[in-house]
Amino acid sequence: MQDGSMALRQEVGTGGMSVDPTGPAPGPLSLVTAPLAPDEAAATIRPGRSFLELDRVDIRLLALLIVLAFALRMLSPVTPGGIGTIATPLTRGSCQTVPPAGKTACGFVFDEVYFPVDALKDLYDLDYFDPEPPLTKLLIAPSIAAFGFNALGWRFTSAVSGSLFVGLLYLIGRRLRRERFLGLTAALFVCLDGLAFVESRTGVIDMIAVLFAGALYYLLLLHWAARTRTQWLSTLYMLAIVGGLALSAKVTALPPLAILAGLSTVRWMHARRFWSMAGIALLVGGTCLALFKPLDGLLAGAVGLLLLLWGERYLYPGWLRLARKTGGKGVGTAGMLWRAAAGRRALLHYAAALVVVGVMFAVTYSRYLTIGHVLYSFTGCTEKAGVMGKSFTTAVPMMTLGAVRLPNPVGGLVNIYWQIWSTFSYQVAECQPHPYASAWYTWPVLLHPVLYYYQSFAGGKVGMVTNMGNPALWWPAIPALLACGWLAFSGRLRWQAGAFLLACASLAVAILSFHAGERPPLVSVRVNVGLGFHLALIGIFVTGALLLFYTAQRGNFVPGFISLGFLVGWIMWAPGNAARVLFLYHMLDALPFMALGLAYILSLMRKADIPWFGSRRLSLAGPAYGMVVLVVVGFLFFYPIWTGIPQTVANENLRVWFQTWLYGSY
CA-CA distance, 646 to 640, in Å (whole number)? Predict the structure, then answer.
């Protein structure tokens, strides 16, 4: 390799590379020195700081966005009478007794009656049961210790997380496109969105968990761009570390990890050896799985055997023919440099990274394991009484070595297992309705947000806080995401149209079949979805697989990545919503991709024009910038119902456009 310039030739090439399917099968890659083509300049190796592709302007913009977001979250509400703080608007909320015994705390809204109290119990070495992993409560605890058990103490961590999340959106957008408009606009959209704003000002765990998910997406993009062995290994193990922490925050870690696994798999599928190695991995995994689920393990093992016997000889050439038929460009020089950077021991590093994920996940339970716990085996549920089951206890895992008592690692892992098992049984059994629950398909259109707070004041004024998103962002994001989906499937027109129609039809059937099985007003409790819904989910799964294929083929990575992130972050909740209630804040997983999708289409519009009168052409830059201004105006307009500012009923009605924005039923 000289001067970082090379061209790489596979044993069976694609996209204009030499094809020799009858020749011997060498290693996964063979290198041939040659100058890079102009369109492959982005694949050149960038050592050191240039790998991040950030300069001083980016650092300043990043700091400015974070400071702006933090100031809005901490120093609101802003009224003609002055500037409030994050602890100001909701001081008349519910009260309850908290540690130490006999102390009463007030000001809770919605789930603040749970998570801050759990964090306080961590500080006092007290037991509690929460069907979520422990990390988010541990991160709330330091601010409670610093500021006291008050609204500022239990909301400060969310404010910091929400502000950093805005900065992450800038980094993600900047990584997707070298121009700053995409990252800057997407970050501004999230900064001024109602859902992200309210969740960042409330002492709940969702904003903390989404911050870890955002970090995973950024590291995913860095790993995808790795061109040297150091870059490949460092980003992989950073992903593993953050992935373990993210899993200990909430299941919001699953979408980025799934997308990483899918994109990496598609890239490796262009190497002949991948097929036999994948077969071996599935055989081993299927054997282990068969110990717990014999049928699933047998199926995985059968697929592994198929790949091992016929993968390299038949499936691999067929895969390459499919890539050419659909208009795919292959993984290109960038992808082959990435595989070359991974080296021949990539599979071992993947296995080691999985171990790191497990270790980091277990480490976050260190505090949990210092306390004995009462856990539950939930066996049933009624809509009136709630979940039912039997309790059991776990002791602090210790062992005696001579005269010394030491922590018992095996006992600790057993306790972690029982906590996860108890959490899982709760999630499966839960069946109670909630007045502000909403169906997954209503989230993008903001049909039914959660009313966190409502208070009447003297003089006929009222104050409210709803987690409704900014309509100026959410509603235009829907056609923008559809456009991203169309662009993501770019290639041969019939394949593009077929994949796009499959996606739209599958979503339509899933929505209609789910809605048909609902029982209003008990929203989304034990929905009888029927066969149509399951078939639609299969269609959506196929759509996701096609998106992975097209995105990794270098066709249109940016719209493909955005479409994947939105689809996985949204649809992952649909199957579970058939069994229990969910809420609009679960859409936080997909929110960054709504912002990125709209920002991406606007970035294309501002450089485009359309035919006008005669030979004139009309620039679309004006409407693009106008949409950004509209999001800012939307934030200012809905600001009072996101911050609890007392207002007249007439002003409230001016901002509450639909009955479901205020009342807890359809």
Answer: 8
Q: What is the DSSP string of 480-533?
A: HHHHHHHHHT-SSHHHHHHHHHHHHHHHHHHHHHHHHT-BTTBTTSS---HHHH
Residue 25 scores a pLDDT above 60: no
> Residue 545: how many CB atoms within 10 A of its CB?
12
The C-alpha atoms of residue 204 and residue 195 are separated, in whole angstroms, by 13
- Block residue for tokens 């809420």: 583
Q: Which pair of tokens denotes residue 368?
A: 């949990």
- DSSP type of residue 444: T
Q: Are the CB atoms for 337 and 228 separated by under 8 Å?
A: no
Note the pLDDT of residue 29. 33
Are 205 and 132 in contact, with CB atoms under 8 Å apart?
Answer: yes
Answer whether the bond into residue 89 is a cis peptide, omega within 30°.
Answer: no
Residue with tokens 């969740």: 199
Does position 279 have pLDDT exceeding 80, yes or no?
no
Mean of the per-residue pLDDT values of the chain: 84
313 CB neighbour count, 10 Å cutoff: 13
User: Please, which residues bridge with residue 31 across strands?
Assistant: 8
Residue 4 clears pLDDT 70, i.e. is over it: no
DSSP state of 215: H
Cβ-proximal residues to 59 (8 Å cutoff; 6+ apart), any chain: none
Alpha-carbon distances of 49 from 45, 53, 241, 517, rounded to whole Å: 12, 7, 21, 54
Q: Which band of pLDDT confidence, cut at 50, 70 and 90, is reported for residue 173?
A: very high
Cα gap 178→637, rounded to integer Å? 33
Residue 325 tokens read as 């038929």
Q: What DSSP assignment string belongs to 163-201?
A: HHHHHHHHHHHHHH-SSHHHHHHHHHHHHT-HHHHHHHT
C-alpha distances out from residue 92 to 95, 144, 151, Å:
9, 19, 11
524 has pLDDT over 60: no
What's phi and psi for 15, nearest 5 deg? 60, 40
Type of residue found at 625: Y
In whole angstroms, what is the distance from residue 146 CA to residue 158 CA? 15
- Average pLDDT of the segment spanning 152-170: 95
pLDDT at site 41: 38
Given this model, what pLDDT does residue 666 score? 43
Confidence of residue 401 (pLDDT cuts 50, 70, 90): confident
In a 3-state reduction of DSSP, which class is residue 126?
coil
- Which sign does the torsion angle of CA 123, 426, 246, 511 carry? negative
Would you state the structure tokens that stand for residue 134, as one six-digit string? 């422990």
10 Å CB burial of residue 427 (0-12, 13-18, 19+) is: middle
**Is residue 554 very low, low, confident or very high in pLDDT (cuts 50, 70, 90)?**
low
Residue 289's contacts (CB-CB under 8 Å, 6 or more residues apart) are 296, 297, 300
pLDDT in tens, 40-70: 334 444 444 568 888 899 999 999 999 999 9
- Cβ atoms 40, 48 nearer than 8 A: no
Other C-beta atoms lying within 10 Å of the C-beta of residue 13: 16
